Amino acid sequence: MKCSEFLQELTNYLDGILDARTRAELEDHLAWCHNCYVVCDTTKKTIEIYRDSQLYELPEDLRGRLRSAIMAKCQKKKAGPEPV
Amino acid sequence: MGTIQPKLSEPVSDELALVQAAKGGEVAAFEELVKRYDRNVFRIAQHITQNREDAEDVVQDAFLKAYQNLGQFQGQSKFYTWLVRIAVNEALMKLRRRRPERMVSLDEDVKTEDDSVPREVADWSPNPEQLYTQSELHDILTRTIQGLPPSFRTVFVLRDVEGLSTEEAAEALDLSIPAVKSRLLRARLQLRERLSRYFQKRNVGGDGTQ
What we know:
- The complex is a heterodimer.
- Chain A has helices at residues 3-14, 20-32, 34-52, 60-76.
- By secondary structure, chain A is an all-alpha fold.
- Chain A is elongated.
- Chain B is an all-alpha fold.
- Chain B has 8 helices and no strands.
- Chain B has helices spanning 15-23, 27-49, 52-68, 79-98, 134-146, 150-161, 166-173, 177-199.
- The relative contact order of chain B is 0.12.
- At the A-B interface, helix 1, helix 3 and helix 4 of A face helix 2, helix 3, helix 5, helix 6 and helix 8 of B.
């Protein structure tokens, strides 16, 4: 497997959806290609950092205000099949 | 090297019952759905619009639109995927209003120069989060993701932050599965490249300074 082929499969590899043969070829490539190993490892860390970052958490006071506003508007409207 | 472990999603078995009750006029059932997903919708909206006020508007407009159109929801997809689709559209409309000079579309297949060829291949510190305080880290992550085109950061947020499957993201964004995969790969690689500037292992000099 070449480096460019590894890159094409990276997303499927990280998502764990590669077939066994392609996965084995990719892991063989990672065993000797340090650059691709680093790219793979740091891409995985990138995803984990964003996933665990709690960026843009909704503060509880704002959450309460938004919910009240939403429900007040919903009370005025009727849920139904008619398009907006 | 392991794969990414998906976020555990909450059970949705009672969801259809809540939707049915809300369709039948039970506002309390709809409020339960709001409570379940308001945090997710807010995060998605803020990531796309990059503006707090716009994100607040999007949350309200998306839930109201969902409520008014519950009759259109056929239950073939998850309620959450349907709601995300509405929220993404509302958020993109806000973005277009704010940046009329730039066309904002999820269909654009943004080509930037060599965006998929890794240049930074230095290893990272073992615990990159510990190099910075919590607020510094948030600042770095925010600025980094803001630099991505909207079509890339939206796919990244739905797949990697909110944990939607490729199929669900494709449905929510009205994109093909190959288009979602292509944008996700490039978003992940571009974010990695930019974060490497902050997180790469520094060589310790002879005098002990970095």
